[in-house]
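Second attempt. The first submission of Glycoside hydrolase family 3 N-terminal domain-containing protein had a stray character pasted in from the spreadsheet, which I only caught after the job came back as garbage. Lesson logged: always re-copy from the clean sequence file. Corrected sequence (930 aa) follows.
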Amino acid sequence: MAHGDGDLDPLWQDLDWAIGQTLIMGWDGTEITPQIRSLIEEHHLGSILLTAKNLKSAEQTASLVQELQTIAHQAGHPHPLLIALDQENGGVNSLFDEDYICQFPSAMGIAAAGSTELAYNVAKATATEISAVGVNLILGPVLDVLTNARHQPLGVRAIGDDPQEASQYGIATLNGYKDAGVATCGKHFPSYGNLDFLGSSLDMPIITQTLEELSLSALVPFRSAIATGRLDAMFIGGVGIANAGMNVMHACLSEQVVDDLLRNDLGFSGVAISECLEMESLIQEYGVKGGTVMAVEAGNDLVLLCRAHDVQLEAISGLKLGIEDGIISKERIHTSVKRVLKMKSSCTSWQKALNPPGLSLLSKTHPTHLNLSRKAYDHSIAVVRDKEGLLPLSQSLLQEEELLLLTPLVKPLPASAATKSMMEKAASKIGAITQHEKWVHQERGAIMSGEGVFRELGRSIARARHGKLLHTSYTANGLRPVHENLIHRASSIILVTADANRNLYQSGFTKHIAMMCQMLRAMGQKKSLVVVAVSSPYDFAMDKSIGTYICTFDFTETAMASLVRALYGDFVPQGSMPGTMRKAKKVTKSRQQWLVENYNHERDSHALDELLSALARSSTPTPAAPTRFNCSIPASRNPTMWYGNSSTQTLYGFVATYYTKGLGSIGAIFVDPAKRNVSIGRSLHRRAVRTLLQRPGIQKIQLGTTFPAAFLGVPVDELKTWFTNLGWDTQFPRRLTNMVIEDLQSWAAPEGLAQSIQRALICFDLIQGLENAESVLNLVATHATADVVELYKFALTGRACGVVRAKTTADDILATVIVCPPGSSLANYVPALQSTTSSEIIGGIIAPIVPSTAQSTLLLQGLALMGLRQNKSHKATRSVLSYVLEDFHEPLAAMGFDIQQTFDEITNSPDTVTTHYPLPLPSPKPLHIC
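This time the job returned cleanly.
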C-alpha cells in the first residue's frame, strides 16, 4: 500500500473524486439508467454492486458490465470499476444462466461432501465464470459459524457450527476464488451465526455473546482467513452487539468493531465494506447522511447503498458535509482510497475490464464445470439415517406400488430455471402498476415457482421408478382430507421439508405423518416414510422417530436431480452432517489406534506432496515440498513418520521430529482434512513422543522448532487444547512471531533511527563462513536453544547466507541475526520464505539473538535495518523477519513490519509428557539419519 498522500495520483486531491472511490452502489433494472450513469460520470462512483434484479443471462451480464466500464473509462476514471456480486451457490446466486453458468451446492453442502479439495475446485469454477462476464469482486466466502445452528436465517449459506471446519472450508473457498483472479470479501463480520431477533422491523438483530465467546468460536474463521494474506475485503454486518464489553447499535457504524476489533485485534489491513445503509432502523436512528459519516469514521473504506437513488445522493452530500465540518479528515478519505486502489490493482485493469472473455470462455469451461457440479451434488447428499433399509427405493418399493411425494409451498431459490420463467411471465403481465402491486405479484410468482421445482422433482422420480407417483403440496393449514386419502393409498411416502425449524408447520406436519405411518404399520399395512430436508439439515437430525432421513442442503433443480439418483441407487450417498454432528458420529472411532510407519523419501515423497497440497487448499500455507523435512546436518536428526494406506501409497497423516543435543522437537503434525477426527493425529503424536523419549540424554521436549523448521510452535488460538489433552503443560508458552514488510522496494527507514544507532556507538558487520563465527555461536548457545545454534551453523556454512553482528567500538558482540537472500538454501527450511507467486521475491531476516539489556530495542531495530538493506539490495520485493519474541512487536511495528503469523513454542520436561504414556517404551530401532 502506498504511504503518504504523495503516492496518490493528484486526481484524488479532488475530494469529489476521492469520495466516489469510497462508495459502492447499485440500482434496479437490467439496463443502464440515467441515475447510475450520472453516479459514475458526475459523482465518480468507483464500485458497483450487481444483484439478480440486474442480470438476465451471462451474455446480457457481460454486455452490461462492459458498458459500465466503458462509461467509467470515457468519464476519465484512472482505474476500472469494482464490479461486485453475490455468487455463494446453493440458494444465493445473483447470476443464473443454465446454458453457461453452473449451479453448485451451498457452502454447507460442500462441507457435507467432506472434501476441501472439492471446495477449492468449486470456488475456482464459480469465480472463473463470473470473472468471464466482467465481475472482479465476489462477496465471499461466508465465514460465519452457526453457533446456534437450528434457528438462524443464515442456514446452509454457512459452512457449519464448528469453527475449525468453517476455517478449513472457508480458506479452501478463498483460495479457489483468488486463484481464479477475483478479489474476495469475507462475510459477515463479526458474525451472523447466533443472532437474537427482537420482533420489530426497526429492531436490529443482536449478538449477545461476549467478546471472549466470539473469539473462541465465531471469530476463528475470520482470523484464519486474515492470516492467509489472501482476503482482500471484509463485509461488516448490520447487527447490534450487546454484552459487557461492547454496546453497539450497528456494527458497521462502530469504531469498536471496525478499527479496534477487526483492524487492531485481528490485524486486517484490507478493505472494509459496510452493510447497506438503506436499513430502515439506521435511517430512523441516524439518517442517511449521519449514518454514512459514521460508517467512514468507524473505519469502513466502501460504504454500500444498494439501490435508492435519492438515498445515494443524500449519502454523497453527507460525506461532503462531514469533511466540511471537520468530522472526517482528508487523510481519512485518502487512507480508504489507497486501500480500494490496492484491491483494484490486484483484480482488474483496463485491458481486462473492457474486454471480458464472455461466452467464448464460458462455452469452453461449461462441460467441465457441469461434471464438477454433478460430482459436487452427488457427494453432498447425506443419508443421516436409514434404520429400515429403505434405500434405494428400487429395492424396497415394488413397481406396482404407489409412491406419494409431499412437498411444502416455499419461496424459490434465485438459482432456478422455474424462478426465472415465473418472474419473466409475471413481469410481462404486470405492466404499469404500482410498486406495491408489483411486489405482491412477484411474491405470488415466487411461491408458484418454488412449487414448480418440486413438480419437476415429482416428474423425475416418476421417470426413475417407471411407476405411479402421487404428488401434492402441504401448507400451514396442516393435514387435510386429501393428504389422508393419498397416505392410505401409498405404500411409501417421500416427505420434503425446507427449514422446518423456522417454519414450524412443516415440523408438526411431518411428525403427524410419521405417527400415522407408524399406526398403519402396526395394523399390518406397508407404509414406509422417507423424510428429505432440502435446506437446513437440522430439521430432524436429532429426531430418531424419523427412521430414514436424507439431506440435500438446497432445492435447486441440480440438487433435486442428485436426490433422485441417490433415492434410486445410481450412487451410494457419502455426504455427512457438517460440523459437530459429523464429529459426534465419529466419536466411536476416536480411540482407534493407527499403525505409524517410518517415512521413506524415495517411496513416499509424491504421496507427501499430495497431502501437503490438500492442506494448502484447506488452511494457512504449509510447507509445499517434502524435501523441507530432510536435513543434511548430522547434528540434527529427523525421523519422519507417516500414517497411510501402504497398498495405495496414500498418506493420511505425517509427523516430523528432530533431535539436537538433548532437545527433542515435534516440528509438524499434518492430517488430511478428509481424515480428521478419527485419531490419526493422536497416533502420530504418540509415535513421535515415544521416538523422542528413546533418545539418550533427552532433557527437553518441545512443540515447534526453529531448524529444520515446519512451524515455530503451535499456531496461536489453534490446537492448544488438543495438546493439553495429550498431556502437555501449555500454560507458559514462549510466543514467537513472523513479521513482514510487504512492499520492500518502497519501504524507507524511520526518520532518525540511523542517527540513534550511531549515537549509541553501535556498529554492524556481516560475516560468512565458520572461520570468524566462534564468538557468534557462543552468544547464540548462551541465549537460545540447540536448534537455533544448528540454524546459525547451517546459515554460516551456506554460500549465500550471512550473519549480521552488532558490536561495540571495542569489537564486543552485542547481538546477531541471520540474513537470508532470496532463493538461498536456508529458505527451503523456513516456510515463511517460500514464494506463492512467480512475482514474489522474499528475503529473510532470521532468528535475532538480542540479550536483555537497556539497548535491546535499539539493537533489534538496528539488526532489522541492516537485514532490510541487504534484502533490498538483492531485489527482494518482500522481507520476512522470523523468530521474533512477543516483547519486540511494538518497536518492529514502528519500523513498518506487520504480523504475519504467531506461534506458541511449548517446552516440557520429559517427565511431564511421559506421564501420558505410562506403558514401557519399545526398544530403539535404527533410524535413517539424513
